[in-house]
Amino acid sequence: MNVVIVDDEPLARERLRRMIESFPGYAVVGEAGEGQAAIERVSELSPDAVLLDVHMPGIDGLQVARELAETDLPPAVIFVTAHSEHALSAHNSQADGYLLKPVRREDLAAALARARQPSRAQYAALAGHPEAGGPMGYISARTRDGIERVAIRDILYFWADQKYTSVFHLQGELLIEQSLSTLEQSLSDNFMRVHRKALVARAHVTGLKYNTDGSACLSLRQSEQYVPVSRRRLAEVRALLGS
Question: N or C of the chain: less Cβ packing under 10 Å?
């Protein structure tokens, strides 16, 4: 996990760097001492997370966080502050976490672990760039290798399993935490619910198959998997295929 540290105090940055680099799987890829430099460093380095001081000269941390949230793939933001009143502002800003100085090692480890999950802004990254020949946007998730992004037009179907949702796409599979209900609301123009556990891309459906027990399933383009169709959704799926 790649991290950028933003703090106007060099000793504070050095202390955070030492702690982060002692955690397996984490690396500090850059630092900044003020807000505008932080925005430029994040744009240049595309880190997974930013440790962001709230009170800095010039652009403060809250404004930096607001600007980062407007980017296509915003990093997770963890505010770091010496003032408890700023912690409340950081919390209310919908950051992915906040820490009070002096930062304790165990608190930092916990905050970074939480930041491995996709941020709220990344979950909202269904609004991407227009894609010719397909729906707009991307699905984003944080993986062991960083942030993985899949174009909506390349997704075959979503499959819900307990608290996670699997995204089956042309290049493989991705695991996210968004519910099918949330996805269905966002993607209703291009996807249809065919089962309580399945949301399928209309454009990738190639046929309807009946099993020997009378149940039905869908075949999808470039996939060997069949997606089950519930009895209550069967008429709607037939109508789609008929059109």
Answer: C
